[in-house]
């Protein structure tokens, strides 16, 4: 425990205040130092005593804080695993409850399984292989959540939610096949995201540029707007986007204080699961926290690979200007790396061995499909802009509306900025029906220089800046009425810069 000197007492008082008042204007402290006057401190302590929710003065909250900017919720978490979890659960409690309701409803609807099924999978299959450090963090989330609210969620619920990208679309189809389940739904692995990483002669000043937009259903995507700044007791500091209650970025976009830059796009039509493996969300979090090189990242992702949420990982090492792509299948994988080149991702596998072994139904030459149409568009954009790519240009690419198959500008499932809700085709290879309310839900970008300063830029909502409005959509598409409870408006925010150690008052004007 840290000694309770004047500064730490101030910080604790500030933490209580921040939680109580939730107002950005009052944010003077965070982890950086004391600039709230003693008089204010006394006043606010009195308010705190009168209004504090249960748990607000818990010493585990010291040093943690939350603020909102540009449509994002930024949380700073620090300490040992249980403390980081407690802060996460406490500061994001209402968001976790809300996110859990949306995610669990989607998982049950899609798989036609009840929640007890997912709890059992979390408890019996996933939990025993989760590193102790992350078991403590996950339990900490439950403890923090319960200290703030009357939540009934327990650690099995939180583990199942953390696996929301891998249990429904990887484990369940494998299980249904194993058990020869009659009338099982035709579940398809997801295809999330458009991304690039470029370096050397491809970028404006030779440094690495990395950019990513997250594709998911809008119900989940509208909630995927957390910026996590984590200073763990062990490993590297992390700045990543994420989902409330989930310990990995999960979409994924993150940087660490050893200069590693990480993103991915998901492999379409992936098949396979290893019940004895380690959950993907655990490996992905561990790799971002502990890897300082492309080789270390690859090693951690391969250790206990369960095949869940199988991705093409795009990496950059800002220390060496080297970039890499790891196509991480279950039976096969392939690593490409270069100090002068660009890798793009839009949910297509490229290694013949991975395609044959892990995604045998994928058709690389069908240019009508969303993954391949976006691959063609990435190739055009990269070729046209070789030597000019920087973060500003990458932001524009993420909002691109050219359908390479129709060779015209429109918003649909084939554009890098996806709007599947306006597509009469949907995305069959992911099981998204016509007008499915999904697509690009937010975007992030960074470069080597920003990574060295632990900075990224992020935009909430469609990366092109268009809003999605739930009410007119549901009126036009009553087939999605089952989502009405969870499908909110997804308003686009501005591109907003975030950095490690940021507090509301330390933001740029
Ligand atoms: Zn768009």
What helical percentage do the residues reach?
25-40%
Largest pleated sheet: 9 strands, mixed
The averaged pLDDT comes out at 91
Number of strands: 17
Describe this structure in words.
It is a single chain. 34% of the residues lie in helices and 20% in strands. The protein contains 16 helices and 17 strands. It has a nine-stranded mixed beta sheet. β7 (253-256) and β8 (260-266) form a beta hairpin. α1 crosses α2. The two termini are 36 Å apart. The structure holds zinc ion. Residues 399, 401, 411, 417, 419, 462, 464, 466 line the site of zinc ion (ZN).
Task: Summarize the SSE layout with pairings.
Blueprint: H1 6-21, H2 38-51, E1 65-69, E2 72-79, H3 81-91, H4 93-111, H5 115-126, H6 132-148, H7 155-162, H8 167-178, E3 194-199, E4 209-217, H9 218-221, E5 226-232, E6 238-242, E7 253-256, E8 260-266, H10 280-290, H11 294-302, E9 311-317, E10 322-328, E11 333-338, E12 341-345, H12 352-358, H13 370-384, H14 391-398, E13 402-403, E14 408-409, E15 438-447, H15 448-452, E16 455-460, H16 470-476, E17 496-499
Parallel strand pairs: 2-5
Antiparallel strand pairs: 1-2, 3-4, 3-12, 4-15, 5-6, 6-7, 7-8, 8-9, 9-10, 10-11, 13-14, 15-16, 16-17
Helix pairs in contact: 1-2, 3-6, 4-8, 5-7, 10-11
């Amino acid at each position: 425990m840290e000694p309770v000197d004047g500064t730490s007492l101030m910080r604790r008082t500030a933490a209580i205040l921040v939680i109580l008042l939730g107002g950005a204007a009052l944010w003077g402290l965070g982890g950086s130092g004391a600039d709230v006057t003693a008089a204010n401190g006394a006043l606010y302590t009195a308010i705190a005593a009168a209004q504090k929710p249960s748990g607000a003065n818990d010493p585990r909250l010291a040093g943690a804080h939350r603020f909102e900017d540009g449509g994002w919720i930024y949380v700073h978490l620090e300490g040992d695993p249980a403390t980081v979890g407690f802060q996460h659960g406490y500061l994001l409690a209402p968001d976790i409850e809300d996110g859990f309701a949306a995610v669990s409803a989607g998982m049950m609807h899609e798989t036609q399984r009840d929640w007890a099924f997912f709890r059992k999978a979390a408890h019996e299959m996933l939990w025993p292989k989760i590193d102790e450090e992350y078991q403590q963090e996950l339990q900490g989330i439950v403890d923090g959540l319960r200290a703030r609210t009357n939540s009934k969620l327990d650690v099995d619920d939180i583990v199942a939610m953390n696996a929301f990208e891998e249990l429904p679309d990887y484990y369940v189809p494998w299980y249904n096949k194993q058990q020869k389940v009659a009338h099982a739904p035709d579940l398809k692995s997801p295809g999330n995201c458009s991304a690039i990483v470029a370096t050397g002669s491809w970028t404006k000043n030779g440094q690495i540029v990395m950019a990513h937009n997250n594709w998911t259903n809008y119900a989940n995507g509208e909630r995927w707007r957390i910026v996590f700044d984590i200073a763990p007791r062990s490993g590297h500091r992390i700045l990543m986007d994420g989902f409330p209650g989930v310990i990995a970025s999960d979409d994924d976009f993150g940087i660490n204080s050893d200069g590693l830059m990480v993103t991915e796009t998901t492999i379409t039509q992936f098949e396979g699961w290893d019940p004895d493996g380690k959950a993907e969300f655990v490996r992905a979090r561990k790799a971002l926290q502990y890897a300082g090189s492309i080789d270390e990242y690859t090693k951690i992702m391969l250790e206990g690979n369960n095949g869940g949420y199988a991705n093409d990982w795009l990496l950059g090492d800002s220390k060496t200007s080297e970039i890499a792509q790891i196509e991480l299948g279950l039976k096969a994988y392939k690593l490409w790396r270069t100090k002068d080149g660009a890798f793009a991702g839009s949910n297509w596998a490229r290694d013949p061995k991975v395609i044959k072994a892990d995604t045998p139904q994928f058709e690389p030459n069908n240019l009508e499909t969303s993954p391949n149409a976006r691959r063609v568009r990435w190739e055009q954009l990269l070729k046209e802009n070789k030597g000019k790519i920087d973060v500003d240009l990458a932001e524009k690419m993420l909002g691109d509306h050219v359908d390479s198959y129709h060779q015209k500008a429109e918003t649909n499932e084939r554009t890098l900025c996806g709007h599947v809700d306006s597509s009469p085709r949907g995305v069959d290879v992911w099981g998204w029906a016509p007008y499915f309310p999904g697509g690009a839900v937010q975007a992030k970008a960074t470069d080597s220089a920003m990574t060295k300063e632990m900075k990224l830029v992020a935009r909430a909502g469609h990366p092109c800046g268009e809003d999605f409005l739930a009410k007119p959509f549901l009126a036009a598409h009553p087939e999605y009425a089952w989502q009405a409870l969870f499908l909110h408006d997804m308003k686009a925010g501005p591109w907003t810069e975030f950095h490690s150690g940021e507090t509301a008052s330390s933001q740029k004007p």
